[in-house]
Structures are given as C-alpha cells and as structure tokens.
Specification:
The protein is mainly α. The protein has one domain. It has a two-stranded antiparallel ribbon. α7 runs antiparallel to α8. The longest helix has 30 residues. The N and C termini lie far apart (about 40 Å).
C-alpha cells in the first residue's frame, strides 16, 4: 500500500456507499460488462475505415468494405496489434499479482456497503482469491483507451474518461486501492500504446496476421468469437489450458 492509498479509498467508498442505488450501479460496471464493451469496441474498429480519423474526420463502419482498402487494412493491422498488447498487459499484471500477497480493501477495510450482508460476503469470498496489485481490468481499460488515439483523438479522450471512471468505480466498491489501478493503468497504457508503435514500424508482420481472417474466415472468426468470450471471463479458458499443458508436461517428465 502506498501513501494516501487508504485515505483516498475511504473517501471514494464513503461517497458511493451512501446510496444503495449508486453502489449497485457501480457494482454492475465492475463485472464483465466493461470487458464485453471493450470487445465490442475492438470488433467495431475491425470493420472501421481508419482514413480521416486523426485528421478530424468521423470514423465509420465499413461492413461492406466499400471504402479505401488501405483504410481497412490499417485499422485491422492496429486491431491485431492491440489484441496482442491487451493480452500481454493482462499477463503482465497477473504475473506481478502472483508474486505477492496483495490484499483487496474489501477483505481488510471497514467499508460502507449498503447491500445485503450475505450477498456482499459472497462477493468478498470470490474477490479475495487472488492478488489485487496491479489491477488487470484497469490495464485492459487503459490499453484500449490509449490505443484509440491511433484512430481518433476524440475517441481516445473519451476512452481515457471511461477508463478512469471504471477504475475509480473499482476503488469505490473495495476491489482495489488507488495504487492498484494507477499501476495497472500505466501497464495497460504502455502495452496498448507500444503495440500501436510496433504496428506502425513493422506493418508487414501484423498485416500477415490480419490476412489470416481473409484467407481462413471459417476458422479464424469462430476462434475470434471464442477468444472474445474468454476475454470477458479474464482469459479463464486460456489459463486453464496453459495450466493443464504445463501440468501434463511435468507429469510426463
């Protein structure tokens, strides 16, 4: 815990915890809904013509691919890079969390909680199963938010506002201390922004990956759907598969 962590957390929790309705709304946005929204944004960007966005023009979906081919190619190149950046940001935050016992406020602080005790205690049991520092969700939010600047400055600004609001909400309900989301957000921003820099400097590699969807759509799009669904569940399927593979290798050895 960093200086002022506890004081800031208690202040934010006190403001939100005064109203059951507000607390419930914040809890709703601390679940899988924001992750599903991130998936929706990335899928929309996949079919977005990237031409003109950074020059002040409006971004528009191009489902029929009637716009300039280069605009779609650039957008899909960025999407592939962003997906890789988001995945790396998540892995990085989880690896850091696994290295230490970082408690969540809801497991150690006296919170203002205006909902039923039984329901809250069940949530506490679920959320205290793994480390809180740094916040993986804050990393995901800010990775997407920073990357949006590559498409449109306005979209990037709104992305940062939404990412900050969602992160503050996670502080308010006791999922994280402020330092958890600040560090998580910084990690996400580095990977999100860095992935777009790589896409600009090495476009051939990311174009090759994006072209797989054109060459093998019946395989790639169903696989994308499964990965998107797993993303909303914090990559549980991927982590279970990796755990099973590692366990199998060590058992055979």
């Amino acid at each position: 815990m960093f200086p002022l962590d506890r004081q800031i957390f208690l202040l934010v929790n006190d403001l939100v915890g005064r109203s059951e309705t507000v607390f419930e709304i914040v809890l709703l946005f601390c679940g899988s809904l924001p992750l599903a929204a991130c998936v929706a944004v990335m899928l929309a960007l996949w079919w977005t013509n990237a031409e003109g966005g950074r020059r002040g023009g409006a971004l528009a979906l191009d489902l029929g691919q009637t716009g300039p081919a280069e605009g779609l190619r650039v957008s899909r190149r960025r999407c592939v890079a962003l997906a890789i950046g988001v995945a790396l940001a998540f892995v990085c935050t989880r690896l850091i969390a696994f290295t230490g016992d970082f408690e969540r406020p809801l497991g150690s602080e006296a919170l203002r909680v205006p909902i039923e005790p039984d329901r809250w205690n069940g949530l506490v049991d679920v959320m205290t199963g793994y480390g809180a520092f740094p916040s993986d969700q804050a990393a995901l939010f800010f990775a997407v938010a920073v990357a949006l600047f590559a498409w449109s400055r306005r979209a990037g600004v709104w992305g940062l506002i939404v990412a900050s609001s969602l992160s503050i909400g996670r502080i308010a309900v006791g999922f994280h201390y402020p330092s958890d989301v600040v560090v998580g957000g910084m990690i996400g921003a580095v990977f999100g922004g860095g992935s777009l820099v790589l896409a600009r400097r090495s476009p051939e590699f990311f174009d090759l990956l994006s072209e797989l969807f054109d060459d093998h759509p019946t395989v790639m799009y169903p696989a994308l759907f499964v990965m998107a669904l797993d993303f909303t569940q914090h990559f549980r399927l991927v982590f279970r598969a990796v755990f099973y593979l590692v366990l199998t290798l060590f058992t055979d050895a």
